[in-house]
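This part of the workshop introduces the protein records we will be handling. Backbone structure tokens are a discrete shorthand for how the chain folds in space. Once this layout is familiar, the rest of the handout is easier to follow. The record below serves as our worked example for the rest of this section.
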Amino acid sequence: MRVLLLHGLAGGANVWDALLEHTVGSPHEVWTAELPWRAEGVPGWTGHSPAHWVRQATGRVPGGPDVVIAHSFGANALLALLDEEPEGGPAPRPRAVVLVSPFYRPRPEAFGWDAISYYLNDFDRILADGLRVRSGGRLPDDLRREMALKVRDRIGPYGWLSFFDTYLRTPDLRTDRMTMPCLIVGGERDFASFPADSEALCAALPYAKAEILPGCGHFAMTERAAEFARLTEDFLQSVA
């Protein structure tokens, strides 16, 4: 099967490196995308919707991906694409998806001013935790915070608004029509995308299963690489 990996906001294809180390010898054809919201940033990417960029990525996989594994903001961009109805009919869909730490709330009332404050004022703390995980904890706290602030500034207000607008629109997703098998993986200690988001999305999708990993944060594919590889391989085998 052809598998496409999509990273989250301020990430990159290297976020999957730990997972790929545990899948050496896999029979699957694995592709990774470098999306324009990656850490170094591509100016003007917010001129198109997140779904647009995922469509571009899936279109560059010869034959199209059978399974898409997407993390964080990348997972929400994928959900937005699956919800679209472009002119000329729906776009080809993957046979199955894996959503890692997606952002989701089932009702508009679930968003309050506190949510805006949290994701705006604590945005750099979320970015700093990503740097901690990817560096293996080798960065001193003060350096990590300084780097997180630089990444935050590179994302900028438009990038943040694109993320939060995508999150705000999740109650409107027509999840009942997303009938492909779906595996959702969340982390018990994830303070960016809370476990409740993963569980609520699982309940909203027709054929979904959620795995909340104990003691894990926002980057299950890095923090629990071996376990994540086993979960995804079992899922891919069931799909095959």
Q: What stands out?
A: The CA atoms of residues 24 and 229 lie 11 Å apart. The radius of gyration is 17 Å. The first helix runs from residue 17 to 21.
